[in-house]
Amino acid sequence: MTPRRARAAYAEPAMSTSPPSPGSPGSAPTGSRAERADGRARAVRAARQALRALATDLTTPTRPGEPLLGTSARRWLRWLPYVVACVFTAVLLPVSILVLANNYGLNGGLSGALAVAQTVPLLLAVSRPLHAWWAIFAADLAGALVLSVSATLPGPPYPWPPQTIISYLLLMVALGLRERRRTLVAVWLATGAACLVFASLRPGDGDGTWVLMFVLSGAILLVTGALRERGEARRELAAQATISEAERARRTLLEERARIARELHDVVAHHMSVITVQADSAPYRLQGLPPEAAEEFGTIAATARESLAEMRRLLGVLRSEESERQGGPEKAPQPGLDQLTRLVEGTVRAGVPVELTLSRALGELPPAVGLSAYRIVQEALANVVRHAPGARTQVSVTPDRTGLTVLVVNGPSPRPAEPLETTGTGHGLVGMRERVRLLGGTLDTGPLADGGYRVAARLPLTEPLTEKDPTPA
């Protein structure tokens, strides 16, 4: 056999050999070992993550330095944690020294050191309860370790003396009122682990104080944690309500401004239309105009048309969907002071006795001033009907050469227990303020001493008031 044939003969068995199937007996132990190793690795990783999370929760306090109940509005509640901590420290410190020395047979120095370490950190629990827990928990572990290595125990509770349990439960109250839920669970688990360890060291001693410590600490953490979360939820709801109220006021203001803009559009659009017509008809009305003047009039008319188109486009943006659903843009002209008499008559028919006083010197007013004065009186009378039905009301509009004074005063309602509305949308006073601010005036509103209400607005005039023929009020 040649060397080449010999190499081929030796290679053939290796090529014909097939790997064992997954179900064959030789492969099962290998797969099982790999799965077990992978499961152990996952369990180790999960245990490490849990321990890391536990350590993070136990070392990361919530709002350190902020006193318990420090945000309370009542002063005595803010001082209450300090008083409680001082009282319990002053009582538990000497009691712990006496109990450890007399009942457990420890020497005076060791008893004093353990008592100080187990009680004085309660003063720290007012502002830093998690740090205080570390100090007291370590002191309690040291005390239990000292008691566990003692030769004999003369019968007192083991591993936690009564004063230690009281101090620890008071600390649980401070923790529950401050720390988050995961931290409380971690503290409770650490407490339970310590109880089991020391109970297993001397199973024949003690009377089950480790069970008492574990159960009571868990109950206190549960109750105080629930109280803390309830308080936080209430504060969050109050904050959201404040934000919602601010947003509602802002939305009301914007809606009122849009409504005022829509109303003033009619006034300005009328003047722009007049300018357009006058500019277009000037070359036909005025004979002998130079070509330059005629071209200037045409430019004025074109500019007026563009301005009017821009105003209508702006009005379309300001108009709300609700007003569109209610029938689209209003076609009626905007009211003025000439319609105050009709407004007062309608209010009288609604059951409100109203006395209207219009000055005889009331002349031609700018349309914006007349519209604003009418709307102010209209909203004031509507508020009287809603909130003080039947109250006697006086309305006066007094002009002078620099401005217009609008005054609406109503007395107390004869039926104060039966108002038609106790709450409103807030548009009334907001609209009054915006109208007055638009014209650069002032507004004074507020209740009267006898239970009535007063609305006084001062609307300045850009030009002196022009006199017209006096008419009876």
Automatic annotation (TrEMBL):
<keyword id="KW-0808">Transferase</keyword>
<keyword id="KW-0418">Kinase</keyword>
<dbReference type="InterPro" id="IPR036890">
    <property type="entry name" value="HATPase_C_sf"/>
</dbReference>
<keyword id="KW-0067">ATP-binding</keyword>
<feature type="domain" description="Histidine kinase/HSP90-like ATPase">
    <location>
        <begin position="372"/>
        <end position="462"/>
    </location>
</feature>
<keyword id="KW-1133">Transmembrane helix</keyword>
<protein>
    <recommendedName>
        <fullName>histidine kinase</fullName>
        <ecNumber>2.7.13.3</ecNumber>
    </recommendedName>
</protein>
<dbReference type="InterPro" id="IPR011712">
    <property type="entry name" value="Sig_transdc_His_kin_sub3_dim/P"/>
</dbReference>
<feature type="transmembrane region" description="Helical">
    <location>
        <begin position="160"/>
        <end position="177"/>
    </location>
</feature>
<dbReference type="Pfam" id="PF02518">
    <property type="entry name" value="HATPase_c"/>
</dbReference>
<feature type="transmembrane region" description="Helical">
    <location>
        <begin position="79"/>
        <end position="100"/>
    </location>
</feature>
<keyword id="KW-0597">Phosphoprotein</keyword>
<feature type="region of interest" description="Disordered">
    <location>
        <begin position="1"/>
        <end position="39"/>
    </location>
</feature>
<feature type="transmembrane region" description="Helical">
    <location>
        <begin position="184"/>
        <end position="202"/>
    </location>
</feature>
<dbReference type="InterPro" id="IPR050482">
    <property type="entry name" value="Sensor_HK_TwoCompSys"/>
</dbReference>
<feature type="domain" description="Signal transduction histidine kinase subgroup 3 dimerisation and phosphoacceptor">
    <location>
        <begin position="256"/>
        <end position="321"/>
    </location>
</feature>
<keyword id="KW-0472">Membrane</keyword>
<dbReference type="GO" id="GO:0016301">
    <property type="term" value="F:kinase activity"/>
</dbReference>
<dbReference type="InterPro" id="IPR003594">
    <property type="entry name" value="HATPase_dom"/>
</dbReference>
<keyword id="KW-0547">Nucleotide-binding</keyword>
<keyword id="KW-0902">Two-component regulatory system</keyword>
<keyword id="KW-0812">Transmembrane</keyword>
<feature type="transmembrane region" description="Helical">
    <location>
        <begin position="133"/>
        <end position="154"/>
    </location>
</feature>
<feature type="transmembrane region" description="Helical">
    <location>
        <begin position="106"/>
        <end position="126"/>
    </location>
</feature>
<dbReference type="Pfam" id="PF07730">
    <property type="entry name" value="HisKA_3"/>
</dbReference>
<feature type="transmembrane region" description="Helical">
    <location>
        <begin position="208"/>
        <end position="227"/>
    </location>
</feature>
<feature type="compositionally biased region" description="Low complexity">
    <location>
        <begin position="13"/>
        <end position="32"/>
    </location>
</feature>
